[in-house]
Specification:
The protein is an alpha+beta fold. The protein folds into two domains: 131 residues, PH-domain like (Roll), CATH 2.30.29; 98 residues, no CATH class. 38% of the residues lie in helices and 28% in strands. It is built from seven helices and twelve strands. The strands form four sheets. Strands 3-7-8-9 form a four-stranded antiparallel beta sheet. Strands 5-4-6 form a three-stranded antiparallel beta sheet. The chain has a three-stranded antiparallel beta sheet with strand order 10-11-12. α2 packs antiparallel against α5. The two termini are 43 Å apart.
Amino acid sequence: MGDEEKQGQSESGELKDSKTKMPFEPGVLKDGDKVIKETVQWEERYHLRAMTSRFIMLVIWMVFWGWLCFVVFPEAAQQKTNEKGEPLYILAKTHDDSKIKTITQKEFNALSDLNKKDWKPKKSAFAFLGENNVNIYIFLVIAGLPFLMTLYRAIYNKVSVSYVLTDYRLIVREGLFLKREFQVRLIQIRDLSVYQGLIQLMLGVGVIKVFSNDADTPELTMEGIRDPVHRKEIIYKISEQKKSEKEFYMGQA
């Protein structure tokens, strides 16, 4: 556990992160005739480390398409010309694509019919889109759009997704323009699970899934959580404490 987390941990084991504080006003809840003033135990935003595996896969995707477009099929990347500025065309042997030569359109037209049968224009795999900068356009569409979408998702999650744990509720908030809030009372939590991939495990982030008896929110997913195992234990500890208190009061009644 890092120093900043040790500093934010109280003697009771409840975590209070000062560096990830966000504006949240604890509410006043009613439990029957009892009025409860809740206090914040922990709050934080989505951590960008959770997107690391996606960015790694995206880099691999972009390298693959860059290799395919500019190494395997480079001839469509740009229109080549000779010293006179005449367009050049790449020809390949009809039965052997490895044997190629570059000539102008005029030279190709001057070839005898017999030679024309032996040689064919060598096209890229994407030649149906045209020969001018085709590979560049394809690379930008196939590799560039996923990059922009992933970057948008990372920024969206970082800015709009937040988590708050009070001594009575667990709250998930998300949305930039259309705000949404999901919450479950701690006494209604019946199970907690932590999910971490290999890269997330190495970076200390993960996903916490909360299963509850709440009909409106039977399952709550919290992604991009730092030190998810420790966070889960905090939620579990407070939840069990509230359940015991409720059982005690019910026994007294």
